[in-house]
Amino acid sequence: MISIEKVFKQFDKKQVLKGVSFSVKRGETFLIIGRSGAGKSVLLKNILGLIRPDSGKIIINGVNITQLEDKALQKVRLQFGLVFQGSALFDFLTVEENVGFYFYQHTKDSKPVIRKKVKDTLALVGLEGIEDMYPYQLSGGMRKRVAIARAVIYNPDIIIYDEPTTGIDPIAVDKIVSLIENLHNQLSITSLVVTHDLEVGLKIADRLAFLLGGRMIFEGDKASLDATKDKRVIQFLKGSSAGPIKEMEV
Amino acid sequence: MIIAKTIDLFVYVGKMSFFIQKTVSGFIFKKKNLKTIFREMVSIGVDSLALVSLVSFFIGIIIAFQTAYQLKQLSAEIHIASLVALSVVRELGPVISSLIVAARCGASITAGIGSMKISEQIDALEVFAVNPINYLVVPKFIALIICMPILVIYADFLGILGGFLVGFTKFALQPNFYFNLTFEALGAKDIIGGLIKSVCFGGTIAFISCYEGFQPFSSTDVSKSVTNAVVRSFIMIIIFDCILTALFYFVVV
User: Fold this and answer.
1) Residue B218: phi, psi to the nearest 5?
2) Which residues of B are less than 8 Å from A75 in CB distance?
3) How far apart are CA A90 and CA A136, in angstroms?
4) Dihedrals φ, ψ of B62, to 5°?
5) For residue A85, which residues of chain B lie inside 8 Å, CB to CB?
6) Which of B253, B121, B22, B68 is nearest to A87 (CA)?
7) Is A83 in contact with A162 (CB distance < 8 Å)?
8) Inter-chain residue contact A77 with B128, CB threshold 8 Å
9) Separation between Cα atoms, residue B201 and residue B207, nearest integer Å
10) Confidence (pLDDT) at A250
11) Pick from B138, B136, B117: nearest CA to B21
């Protein structure tokens, strides 16, 4: 489904990704964990084709997107639904226009038809009666759920969650985690979750990879994570400041 | 230092040219969203009316006072009408209105796009396979090149009205007489020249404000981009005004 092979990316003189490789299978929830600044967001932008890697391959459903021109890349992007770290709802549009954005832009569906789809999808994420509100009128947790509704409404092949629980309170975190699990079970969508919140990540992941200093130092399932002897991974799991991971590596 | 600044200038001009090319291409070839254009026109045109009215009216009054002070010595006060009309229609109407729109709407456009950029809304557009230039810039460009001439006609009218107020109250010039003198002085070339200027200035504000909006990488960069947008718009408006005036009155005679 997604195969990343030896991806390198440098900004100015800083090498952010140093040969990252991993693969995500159809239908699974794959977790990428790592400290803040480890290169997770840059990796995501490469996968979405928002920035191009300096070298390496990014294969989405059999197509190497690093070679594609902008128009072809746009089609590939529509296979993704992305939940941004800060929700990234369009602040000049209502909730209905945000959630139904895909249909307003890419289909000729009438407004009532789109409104019905939006209503159904908002109900799926546990929100009702907020179609005519603007993003600034919503709480952080609600904005996150609206962002999830906007990402799943057009049934994309893959949903990417970028730090889905950052900046919201613990109760809202629990709701978001349950929602991600339910959506995965109900819609059987392939999910890629990027987070530094290990507790949240382990609840929802089938397999995971650990990104450190621009390199994947671990890839496997939860059992192999428990069995790993890599001291860097163990330090991260313990959340200890003492160990082989130094500030310089971030 | 000078070499680095020169290179920066060439890079800026190159990037801006590329940006203008993409915007014009979107303007010509892409389907337009009338609802968005209308929303932008309201934001740019209607919301600028009060400030344009106030400034233009007082500019008309000030020019009338200044010219009257000189003309009084020659006992030629009746020429106030023609001097106010020509100054306002040829120069002050287009330039003052454009500077107001650049400061008020241009800054707002840059801040709006800049905050969208740092809150990942621009990335969200791209993920939805929507071109940010066609979606955000083209409607603002169209709204500005439509609204600017309308605002300038309105500013011209209020400037002339300001001049009339002085002519009527201070020098007892009757309304019919004053407006006859005004329209006798004005030629089609003056009015059309002013309107062409306003369209050029509207396009300039759109290109610079939108381009600067795409530059910030963090929230602290937004204020810098807004300042750049306003300063660069002011500079370019004055430079284009100089070029167009030379073109209208000394090249195309």
Assistant:
1) -145, 170
2) 129
3) 10
4) -65, -45
5) 120
6) B121
7) yes
8) yes
9) 10
10) 44
11) B138
**DSSP type of residue B251:** I
Predicted pLDDT of residue A235? 82
Residues 6+ apart with CB under 8 A from A55: A6, A7, A8
Q: Does A78 touch chain B (CB under 8 A)?
A: yes
CB contact under 8 A, B129 and A78: yes
Backbone angles phi, psi at B238, to 5 degrees: -65, -45
What pairing do the DSSP bridges indicate for beta strands A158-162 and A80-83? parallel
Q: Find the closest chain B residue to A93 by CA distance.
A: B36
The whole domain housing B141 covers 2-251
**pLDDT over 90, % of chain B:** 75
Please report the ipTM that was assigned to this predicted complex: 0.86
Nearest CA in chain A to B33: A105
Nearest C-alpha of chain A: how many angstroms from B77? 53
- A38-42, B78-82, B184-188, B210-214: lowest mean pLDDT where? A38-42
**Residue A120 corresponds to which tokens in the numbers above?**
């159904």
Interface of A with B in 178-197 (CB under 8 A): none
CA distance B97 to A46: 44
* Amino acid identity for residue B51 in this structure: L
B77 pLDDT above the threshold of 90: no
Distance CA B137, CA B23 (A): 7
Counts of helices then strands in chain A (DSSP H, E): 10, 10
pLDDT digits (tens, 9 = 90+) for B34-57: 888 999 999 898 889 999 999 999
Q: How many residues make up chain A in this entry?
A: 250
Token reading at A82: 């992305």
Q: At B227, which helix (H) or strand (E)?
A: helix B219-246
**CB nearest A86 (choices: B119, B128, B130):** B119
Give the Cα separation of B144 and B205 in Å (integer). Answer: 8
Beta bridge partners of B219: none
Q: Which residues of B touch A105 (CB under 8 A)?
A: 128-130
Structural domain tally of chain B?
1
B150-175 per-position pLDDT tens digit: 999 999 999 999 999 999 998 888 99
